[in-house]
Amino acid sequence: MRTALVIGTGLIGTSAALALAGRGVTVHLVDHDAAQARTAAALGAGTDAPPEGRVDLAVVAVPPAHVAATLAEVIKADAARGYLDVASVKGGPRRELEATGTDLSAYIGSHPMSGKERSGPLAASADLFEGRPWVLTPTRDTDTEVLNLALELVALCRAVPVVMDADAHDRAVALVSHTPQLVSSMVAARLREADETAVRLCGQGIRDVTRIAASDPRMWVDILSANPGPVADVLAGVASDLEETVRSLRSLQADDAAERSAGAAGIEDVLRRGNAGRARVPGKHGAAPASYETVAVLISDQPGELARIFADAGRVGVNIEDVRIEHATGQQAGVVQLMVEPSAAPVLSASLRERGWALRQ
Is CATH 3.30.70.260 the right assignment for the domain spanning 293-360? Predict the structure, then answer.
């Protein structure tokens, strides 16, 4: 791939353009907002000048509702050898494109499973897709050359290609992406009118659950409007669990011991099913989930403290598999949780204590 046209210079389009440009591809940027395309160009994502002729690959990075019309237009203009979109929904836009009578042999649907709470070109980064799944949804009509161009794009972005059926993809993202966004927003919405004393008690748990609730509502309305059925199906299952959980919690208030016992069993059931589901989430490098020990260390909010604790772990040959930071409300301190292999936890704990770190049990 020597040339590419990126249509839509938001987070995903600009990030893909930055990755391509950084690896020697000449990238042309187009956006309905010319100022946004100029911003992306100023960041090094390419040029906002139009291509002089046909490019190798056109990447359509517009909201799902506009994907089909945009693809039909650029395919009709013979703008590229191959065409690809990066919308988070695949089945609907493909059917809309088919309805226009457009020849789909040069088109392949795709969805990079990566993003941020922030949007726009200023949130973009060339490494956004590194190590992340990038779904490709070819059909029997997809030319091999176009599939190869898509695979080259994924490789240049250092992502991991995953081939799926378009409708299967939409059902999957309804479960692992779209429903979590709504549930996160619903939990965060409870905080809107909460008493200030309650909000000040927020800890890492509520921060984890509500992190993605900071996402752009307009963007998510576009996404959910393109995939409402599968998301509603998943939410119906969540609603059923919620209803049963509410009944179980009410039972815990009953005078009858048997009813209280049944309520406790209901709560335990949903928690254990949650354990089993969480255990299926892929772990490091996409491998099966691993069981790590957590070494919790009190840390001050000072420059260089994280670097120092990582260096101290490295001195005893312990690899930190994952890390989380829990901030203390109203204090310049917190707890850094270092996840390590179980056999390494005692070694790391002893070493950190020797070096003056305060560990939290």
Answer: yes
Among the residues of 142-256, which ranges form H helices? 144-156, 166-173, 179-189, 196-199, 204-210, 217-225, 228-251
The full set of domain ranges for the chain reads 3-164, 235-279, 293-360
How confident is the model at residue 325, as a pLDDT? Answer: 82
∠ CA 221-225-231, rounded to 5°: 100
Q: Pick from 220, 219, 208: which is nearest to 182 by CA? A: 220
Residue 167 scores a pLDDT above 80: yes
**Alpha-carbon gap, residue 284 to 290, rounded angstroms:** 8
150: tokens are: 């898509």
Phi, psi (deg, nearest 5) at residue 162:
-135, 120
Give pLDDT tens digits for 340-349.
Answer: 888 899 999 9
**Residue 283 burial by Cβ neighbours in a 10 Å radius (0-12, 13-18, 19+):** middle
**Three-state secondary structure string covering 46-82:** CECCCCCCCEEEEEECCCHHHHHHHHHHHHHCCCEEE
Structural domain 3-164, CATH architecture: 3-Layer(aba) Sandwich (3.40)
pLDDT at 328 over 70: no
d(CA 290, CA 285) in angstroms, rounded, equals 11
- Interval 14-57: pLDDT, tens: 999 999 999 999 999 999 999 999 999 999 999 999 999 999 99
